[in-house]
Design brief:
Shape: globular
Low-confidence stretches: none
Number of helices: 5
Mean pLDDT: 93
Oligomer: single chain
Distance between the termini: 28 Å
Structural class: alpha+beta
Length: about 180
């Protein structure tokens, strides 16, 4: 087991900062996850409530301790307002790879937070965790997330047919990659 140690200071790029989750994020997390667009494209359940948020925060702590994920809150660099969530997940230490997953609160969209957050966490994952490959999956119908991947330097590799169950239907996913060797 490789315990992940998140940085003590926020990772910052312009107006965007990544920091570890805090218990005090609970209410902002519940409020953000009321947006149906988040549950449409992620595994966040609809009708998200305090119990879901508490479980999320506990799960994030456990996964970091077990070396299975590196979760961060995306916040405004100036005011610390919760803008979203991002994590390196499905970390496979033997193969030095992970997947990046994220969502943004409705009010934070369109301001560059997602692209900056993806760049920040991937740069940190390569430097601090020694990752060689980071994958990003976006639903074929989720063009904004695909644009984030492309702006962050990811290369499109394939379409994975019927890859993920989302609500009442199967979703095709676009697979993107970021290789440390190509971005050195």
């Amino acid at each position: 087991m490789t315990r992940i140690r998140l940085p003590g200071e926020p990772l910052v790029d312009g107006a965007t900062a990544l920091r570890p989750w805090r218990d005090s994020d609970l209410h902002a997390l519940v409020e953000a996850c009321q947006d149906p667009e988040i549950s449409r494209w992620t595994r966040v359940p609809p009708n998200y409530g305090e119990t879901d948020a508490r479980a999320y925060l506990i799960q994030r702590y456990d996964m970091t301790f077990q070396g299975r994920a590196a979760p961060f809150a995306i916040v405004g660099a100036g005011d610390g307002t919760l803008a979203g969530s991002i994590a390196l997940i499905r970390i496979e230490w033997e193969h030095r790879r992970a997947e990046v997953g994220y969502w943004l609160a409705r009010d934070a969209r369109g301001s560059g937070h997602a692209t900056r957050a993806v760049r920040l966490i991937c740069d940190w994952g390569v430097r601090a965790l020694g990752l060689e490959r980071i994958d990003l999956l976006a639903a074929t119908e989720n063009r904004p997330s695909q644009r984030v991947a492309e702006r962050a330097g990811f290369i499109r590799e394939a379409v994975l047919r019927s890859y993920m169950q989302a609500r009442d239907e199967r979703q095709d996913m676009v697979a993107y990659r970021l290789l440390a060797a190509e971005n050195a």
